[in-house]
Amino acid sequence: MGKRQPRKKKKVRAFWLKQLHTWHWVSAAISLAGMFLFAITGLTLNHAASISATPVITDSSGQLPRAMLDKLPAPNDGHAPLPADVARAVAAAVPVDPAGHAADWMDEGEVYIAMPGPGRDAWVAIDRTSGAITAETTDRGWISYLNDLHKGRNSGTVWFWFIDLFAVACVVFTLTGLFLLQLHARHRPSTWPLVGVSLAVPLLIALFFIH
Q1: Residue from 97, 153, 159 nearest 122 by CA
Q2: What is the SS3 assignment for 44?
Q3: Is 195 helix (H, G, I), strand (E, B) or coil?
Q4: pLDDT at position 162, please?
Q5: CA–CA dist 128, 149 (Å, integer)
Q6: Out of the domains of life, which is the source (predicted)?
Q7: Of 129, 62, 48, nearest in space to 91 by CA
Q8: How does residue 40 score in pLDDT terms, banded at 50, 70 and 90?
Q9: Does residue 89 have a pLDDT over 80?
């Protein structure tokens, strides 16, 4: 009876070791690329003032055909996108595609569509009377693009959900790592002092050096 107990404990420990190792490496594999991206962009965001970037601004203009101009809805307080055929006509006239973006219909003389994105800004305006199209794009460079992805700024719904799933994978990776540390700590006496340092350092910095 006495021999069965240690054997049972070994089996339980082996089971949990196998499970934790499996979840740990799977979550590591899933979050690897995202973790690398967020680590690098953490550095670039922290040193944003030291990284110079000159925005490239491009202005363009065109003309909306009268047939398309007549399809613009009357001014209202809504923000519906442009009608599909009008959006296609705008995209054919200037190098900006407003399809699917909310439009500002409140101005009687103009329709304005803002199209911000990661690392860039863009807008297009349509004169309701003449059909003149004015557009502007601002490209702030690939570092700004990656920084905006880090912040989830103007990155769309798919990226929004990617960040959530990536965060869950990181939590699984961290918690399984913590439990693995606990299982191996008996043979590695420096485990908990190092874990304590990982907690104490940011806590002390937050308490004494962030005002």
Answers
A1: 97
A2: helix
A3: helix
A4: 95
A5: 35
A6: Bacteria
A7: 62
A8: very high
A9: yes
For 89-102, give one letter per residue: b (16+ CB within 10 A) or e.
bbbebbebebeebe
Length of the chain: 211
| DSSP class per residue in 159-186 | HHHHHHHHHHHHHHHHHHHHHHHHHHGG
Q: Can you read off the two tokens belonging to residue 128?
A: 């309701």
d(CA 74, CA 108): 8
Q: What is the mean pLDDT of the chain?
A: 91
Residue with tokens 């970037």, as numbered in its chain: 53
What's the rounded Cα separation, in Å, for the pair 130 and 150? 41
Look up residue 81 and give its two tokens.
């996108």
Please report where in the chains the tokens 């990776």 appear, as a residue: 173
Q: Look up residue 208 and give its amino acid.
A: F
Distance CA 192, CA 182 (A): 9
Tokens 């003309």 found at:
63
**For 122-151, how does the pLDDT look when each residue is reduced to its tens digit (9 = 90+)?**
999 999 999 999 999 999 999 999 999 999
The pLDDT assigned to 184 comes to 84
Give residue-wise pLDDT tens across range 55-83.
999 999 999 999 999 999 888 878 999 99
Higher pLDDT, 63 or 13: 63
Radius of gyration of the chain (CA): 27
